Structure formats: C-alpha cells, structure tokens
Amino acid sequence: MLKGKSAVITGSTSGIGLAYAKALADEGVNVMINGFGPADEIETERKGLEARGVKAIYNAADMTKPAEIADMIATAKAELGSVDILINNAGIQHVAGIAEFPDEKWDAIIAINLSSAFHTCKHAVPLMREAGWGRIINTASAHAKVASPGKVAYVAAKHGIAGLTKTVALETAEDKITVNAICPGYVWTPLVEKQIPDTARTRGITEEQVKHDVLLAAQPTKEFVTVEQVASLAVYLCTDGAASITGTLLSMDGGWTA
Length: 258
Ligand code: NAD
What we know:
47% of the residues lie in helices and 14% in strands. The protein is of the alpha/beta class. The protein binds nicotinamide-adenine-dinucleotide.
C-alpha cells in the first residue's frame, strides 16, 4: 500500500535515519535523504536506495537553517511529486553538567533536535492536507519521557518533541494525517558511540563501564535496540492498520521506562 508514496527523512545519512530510508524503500517508497557526511559515502548510500527500485534523492539542508528546511520540503514536492511521509530524525547530543554546558551546544541541540521538526511540519502539513493523507513520525527518545544527568539540552529538546507531536496530531486529526513519536532507548549508532568518552569523563568511569553499567543499566533487556527494529515500527505507522494511532509516544526501549 505504500508503493509510489514519497518520504522525506531528516538526518538520514547514518544510523536510524538511514535505516528508515532503507525500510521505506523496501516498501516501494521514494525517498529524500538528508544529513551530513562525506559526499562519496552519501552517494553510495543513495545508489543503494535506488537499487531497491525507487527514486532516491539527497538534500543537504542544514537543520539549523529554517530557509534551507523550507527549500528542502519544496524540492521534495517538486522532484518526488509529493511529501506523503515526513520523518523528523536529525539529532545530535552533547554531554556536560548544567554549570559547564556550552551555550552554543544548547542552541544547536534545540535547533536540530526540536525546532527543525517545527519547520518541516509547518511546510509539509499543507501538502499532506492537499493530498488527503499523511504520516509524520518524529524520532524522540526515552529521554522524551525521563531524564538523565548531563543531557539537559537533549532531554529538553526531546520533551519538546513530545509536545510538538501531540499538538500537530490534534491539529491534523481530521485530515487523515497521523503524527507520532518513536521513543527508542539506546540504539547502537554513531550518536551513541560518540557520547561514550564524554559520559566517562562526566561520571569519572571507564568507557567500558559507561557501555555496560550506564547505558545498558537503564535498559532491562541488557541489549541495544537495533536500527532495523526502529525502522520496522516506522513502516508499521505508515500502514492503514495504524490509521488510528496518532498523538502517541511509542516506546521501544527494552523496558527502560516501564
Ligand atoms: P547518527 O549520529 O547516526 O545520525 C544523525 C543524523 O543527523 C546524521 O545523518 C547526521 O548527518 C544528521 N545531522 C546532524 N546534524 C544535522 C544538521 N544540522 N542538519 C541535517 N542533518 C544533521 O544518530 P542516530 O543515533 O541515528 O540518531 C538519530 C535520531 O535518533 C536522533 O534524533 C537521536 O536523538 C535519536 N535517538 C537515538 C538513540 C540512540 O541510542 N542512538 C536513542 C533515542 C533516540
């Protein structure tokens, strides 16, 4: 049922975003990927998506720049024909205590992890209303529901995404558009790998201890969530079976927030 639809996925040159793009392409969805990275690696990923038999395009919009975001949505409509599915996924992390937290990291995390979703939704919702169908999926986090020390900006942004998800869901409830947030626990991606040294420094423990005693300590299954598991939930949310699921924060966190 998703064949021929089009999706814009922010922050999809790596990790969970790339897994969303692959899973949707496997369902016949044309995809626009976005994010940073070496041009040759992005082109290899784009070709890999096209090899799944769909149209795949790359847009380099910086999620801190509202004008580039507006242009990205307009380009997706022009080149893919529609924006049926929007996945707000771009995100960064910085770990530091409140007294040391750099102002520029606060601003960047709020811009990329929260404000970018406001701007994409603002431009995509009118297109979805016009088409009479739409799916918006926000990658939130277990940190949309609970907090951890050293992550003030990330936790604030993800709690903000929860509010944005619920509000846009209510505003589009009669338009055959659903808006939901997926709240993963720790997923093994470059974002998690990169925060291990800082967490070790903040807490005064080794990197191995961070992995096993801090990250997986929060996750009762003692296993990292996989990017494929997160992507399969997103594909389900795009189906007709999920048409009545809107405004929800769906946990996939190995029991963390239970
Ligand atoms: P990742 O670092 O692998 O991917 C992040 C993506 O965002 C990359 O494609 C990167 O290029 C892109 N990006 C960063 N800054 C950008 C900007 N200014 N403009 C456009 N793109 C930008 O990380 P990931 O773990 O796959 O994270 C993806 C999302 O999942 C994030 O929102 C993150 O908060 C969330 N999340 C991750 C985990 C986890 O454990 N990995 C858990 C819960 C939620």
